[in-house]
C-alpha cells in the first residue's frame, strides 16, 4: 500500500505541476480578467483537471502494485500518461484557439474578440495591407475600435452577412482602428445602468449595489455592456477622461 500511495503522490504532483504551468501561462498572457470570465472556459478546464489531476493519479493508485513486474507497471502508467497528454493537448489547443485577442468597441457595445472570431481571409488582407493592429501569434489582448465602414454598401454587406451567419466587423482586422480614435463615438453610447441592455432587472439591482460599494455613482451615463461567450459584464467609464474605471459582474 505504501508503494501505491507513493506512486499516486508522485503522479499527482507531476500532473498538477504541468497543468498549473499550462493554465497559468494562458491566464497571465491572454485570459486575465475579464478574459477568463467572458470566454466561459470552465468546461474545458474541468475536462483537463478531471483527466490530468483526478483520474490519472487515481488510476496509478489502482495499478501501482509493489509486486507487479516493473515492465508491466511502466506500460500501464505509460498508457495512463498518454491519455493525460491527449486531454492536455486537447484542452490547451482549445484554449489557445479561443484566446482573447481584442476588446473591441463596436457600435453600441464592447465585445471580446477571440482568436477564432477572426476571419482568415480578412486576416490575410490586413497583413498584405500592413494594418497596424493586425494580430500575430504572440499578440496579447488589446483594446481597439471596430467601426462599421463608412461606405453604405460595405456596411450593408457586413450587417446582412451577420444575420446570415457571416463574420461581424469585429472579426475583420482591416477595419480596426486605435482605441483612442473611437472615444468620441464611445461617449455617445454611454448609458445609465438602468438603461443598459443585456441585464435583467435583478442583475441591474446587483450591479448598482456593487457600483455603490466601489464608490461609483449610479445615476449618470457612464456604463456600457462588455460581452463575450459567457455572461456579459458592465464596464464603467469615467465620462470626463473616458477611462475604464471598473468592470463589474452582474451575477
Explain what this protein looks like in three dimensions:
The chain has 251 residues and is of the alpha/beta class. It folds into three domains: 2-97, no CATH class; 100-186, no CATH class; 190-251, no CATH class. Helix content is 50%, strand content 14%. The chain contains eight helices and seven strands. Strands 4-3-1-2-5-6-7 form a seven-stranded mixed β-sheet. Strand 6 (233-237) and strand 7 form a beta hairpin. Helix 1 (2-31) runs antiparallel to helix 3 (42-63) and helix 3 (42-63) packs antiparallel against helix 4 (70-97). The two termini are 46 Å apart. The mean pLDDT is 92.
Short description:
The protein has 251 residues and is of the alpha/beta class. The protein is built from 8 helices and 7 strands. Strands 4-3-1-2-5-6-7 form a 7-stranded mixed β-sheet.
Layout of helices and strands, plus pairs?
Layout: H1 2-31, H2 35-39, H3 42-63, H4 70-97, E1 100-106, E2 109-114, H5 120-128, E3 142-145, H6 152-163, E4 177-178, H7 183-189, H8 201-213, E5 223-227, E6 233-237, E7 244-248
Parallel strand pairs: 1-3, 2-5
Antiparallel strand pairs: 1-2, 3-4, 5-6, 6-7
Helix pairs in contact: 1-3, 1-4, 3-4
Amino acid at each position: 500500500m505504501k508503494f501505491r500511495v507513493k506512486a499516486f503522490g508522485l503522479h499527482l504532483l507531476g500532473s498538477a505541476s504541468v497543468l498549473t504551468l499550462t493554465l497559468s501561462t494562458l491566464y497571465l498572457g491572454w485570459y486575465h480578467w475579464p478574459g477568463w470570465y467572458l470566454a466561459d472556459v470552465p468546461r474545458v478546464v474541468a475536462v483537463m483537471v478531471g483527466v490530468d489531476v483526478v483520474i490519472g493519479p487515481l488510476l496509478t493508485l489502482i495499478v501501482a502494485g509493489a509486486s507487479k513486474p516493473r515492465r508491466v507497471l511502466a506500460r500501464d502508467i505509460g498508457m495512463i500518461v498518454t491519455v493525460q497528454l491527449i486531454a492536455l493537448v486537447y484542452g490547451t489547443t482549445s484554449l489557445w484557439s479561443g484566446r482573447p485577442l481584442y476588446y473591441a468597441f463596436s457600435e453600441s457595445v464592447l465585445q471580446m474578440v477571440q482568436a477564432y472570431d477572426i476571419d482568415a481571409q480578412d486576416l490575410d488582407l490586413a497583413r498584405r495591407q500592413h494594418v497596424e493592429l493586425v494580430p500575430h501569434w504572440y499578440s496579447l489582448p488589446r483594446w481597439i475600435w471596430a467601426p462599421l465602414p463608412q461606405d453604405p454598401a460595405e456596411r450593408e454587406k457586413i450587417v446582412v452577412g451577420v444575420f446570415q451567419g457571416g463574420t461581424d466587423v469585429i472579426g475583420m482586422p482591416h477595419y480596426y482602428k486605435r482605441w483612442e480614435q473611437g472615444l468620441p463615438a464611445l461617449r455617445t453610447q454611454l448609458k445609465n445602468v438602468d438603461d443598459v441592455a443585456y441585464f435583467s432587472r435583478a442583475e441591474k439591482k446587483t450591479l448598482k449595489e456593487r457600483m455603490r460599494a466601489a464608490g461609483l455613482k449610479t445615476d449618470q451615463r457612464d456604463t456600457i455592456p462588455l460581452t463575450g461567450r459567457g455572461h456579459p459584464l458592465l464596464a464603467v467609464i469615467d465620462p470626463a477622461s473616458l477611462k475604464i474605471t471598473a468592470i463589474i459582474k452582474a451575477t
